Amino acid sequence: MFSILCVLSAVVAACLANTSPPQPVTVAPGCVVNGVTYKAGERFQKSPCSPCYCSADGHINCAIVDCFFTPCVDAIHDPTKCCPVCPNGENCKHKDGTIIKKGEVYNPDAHTSCKCPTSFHFGPSLAVCAVDTINVG
Fold first, then answer.
1. pLDDT at 15
2. Closest listed residue to residue 58, CA positions, set 26, 29, 25
């Protein structure tokens, strides 16, 4: 039994003598998000409304985009963009449902002219109308 231990000790000693000490593994600084590695300093987006930055210490810093109101009544949500967009430009709506482009005049009848307000506010924008009382019969 003693001779087997001596042989095993000799084999282990020989193996240890022939191996170099383990080398430290260096990992480049970066961030991993959903299995994707980003380099330190690299910018990326987790979603259209969340731009992010990989810091030098490997932390992920993200902002949350807050959308301003849309200056139209027919805004759509484009999944590639964060905030709603106005496909037909700035506009407003008359009470009869007609959409009026900013800068244009809508005449729902012979005596009424309607246009978009000069400044938009939060919520749907309704047209401002004026009735011509001088020429009303």
1. 45
2. 29
Give per-residue burial for 37-59: e unless 16+ CB within 10 Å, then b: ebeeeeebeeeeeebbbbeeeee
pTM of the model: 0.57
Q: Domain-by-domain residue ranges, the chain?
A: 91-131
Contacts of 4-7 with CB under 8 Å at 24 or more apart are: none
Low-confidence spans in the chain with pLDDT less than 50: 1-15
Cβ burial, residue 72 (10 Å; 0-12/13-18/19+):
buried
- Other beta carbons less than 10 A from residue 108's beta carbon: 14
Q: How many residues does the chain have?
A: 137
Rounded to whole angstroms, the Cα distance separating 43 from 108 reads 51
